[in-house]
Amino acid sequence: VAYLKLLFKRGSSLATCSTAGCPGSQLKDSRDRISSSAHTDTYSLNSRLSLQSISTNISSTMSKTVANINSVACDRMLEGILLYAAQGSHEETGVVGSFLRMIELASVCRQWRFRLIAHICRTAIAECKRVPHQNAGNNSPSSYKWISNIKLITAMGLSSKTRELYIYDIDGKGTSSFSAAMEATRFGSYSWDRVSLLKFGRGAFKDTEAGNPGVIGSVFSILTSNFPSISNVNYLLDSLPRTSGTTLRAMLINHYTSQSMTVCIREWNLTASLGLLRQDITKLDISTSVMAGALQDLRFPNSSLQYLRVTDVERCFRWDWFRSDANEWYVVFPELKELVLEFVCMGDDMGTMSIARFGLRFPKLLMLRALNGLLYYSDFYTAFVDSPLESLYIAEMGTHLEYVDSRVIRNVHALEIRPMESTSYLLHMVSPYSHLLSVDSMAQAAILVSIPPYMLPAINWTNLREVELDLDRLEFEPIDALLLRLPFIKSLSINYFVYSWQTTDDYHPHCTSSDSPVELLSMSLQYVSLAIKDKNLGPVCVKWLCTLIPHIPSLLTARVPHTCVDEIKQFVQLSGKDIGIREAACY
User: Fold this and answer.
1) For the chain, what are the domain ranges?
2) The pLDDT of residue 292
3) H or E, element range at 176
């Protein structure tokens, strides 16, 4: 620990060293010191770490000097590169592995240290690892020890910057020694008030499911007394519980959700812990991919839920899991404001079930994000007609979009509609959602994907301020007609990409004539972006933009294809306009 602190202090002197000097000498020395410490301190960091993954991830960059790397990459890019290089496989090096890589990278120079220091202390790690036998023929049971970065964080005086506690025990064998291991780090002498996230890695504390009151009480006490501000509990469970009794994990989740109101359940979750969840949790994130064996009387708390995300929804999913009273036929989410439902795609046939039979009610729902709901329920969106929706994301098979209840979009402020078929299929559809365009809607921002250009003038959402269009055909006249119908529009983004399977007839563009009789297309539009990944269409884009600009006096910024930038800039200068011309990003 002392040596690593010294490396941080000496970081500035390493700023100009080459890759041959730093990884080969300074970092090796650092790793050797950690290794030496590991033999005398049972709870020290894992020392067996090579630079192989680092050299693999950033080999092309590390072939230059550190100074060159710092000068080429911007601050955010450099930080991203370093974090990517630090990431490793948990199976190979454990959770602590990426932390060690980060330490090694931070010791290279002052700039790298500055970029990584916040990440180094962000997560406090406690990981239980199997200790290999020195004698390969030894048949005695394996031993385990806890390793942690807590000593290093406290030695640097950075515990106040720690935000997460990650407990990882893949074999589930370390619960009995956890308390002693944590006490050995002397973490109780420091403040961890700003730690808000508790993460249980796979296997953590699963060996307490059979019950061990002494161990359970000790671990529960040491965690809850030293980490009082946990506001988010995230845990991965990996096996069916051996008993239905109270587990340590359940106790901790129950304790922390009483103040955090947030639970994330991403894997095997049907344990006794669900029965202990408080009724006043406000955020629930669950995966239903393994819920086929769920108990009939399973109940998720929903009386105070404000955010609910359910992924991998299949036919085994039961809405009555959220019913507050077994005798009621309807299911009410009285406080829910955000709902994300991601249904598993199983074929392309329209759903035949009716969602109305569940009696779902969402009196305060403001945001709905739905994926493939119509594959399961023919009237899926009708369930949300009476909700005060402000934001709506619809992703459905294109052939199913005509069954979206148009009433659901009337009062939304932000709307995104995305057909799920391949673009080649959608090119031959008349209109996947024409019935929605003519509905009076309060939408102020809209993203429309694979909409036929000829349908653009049919859009009746006159309150639109921001519009993004992903087009499969590039026709400019309908875009002009759309602008005439939107008196308040401020931003228009057009994305168009030509695919290898498309023919010229599929994407032949039609340009608005420069002799257009329309005096003004818009008095409000301030921003235009035209992203086109086809250099052959540069001339028609230039022609349209040169026609467009004189008819929009309010225009301030235009992002155009890179092949058009110079011509458009010249046109703007000759016209005496004060418009910023920039290159549009093409993805």
Assistant:
1) 1-120
2) 57
3) helix 175-184
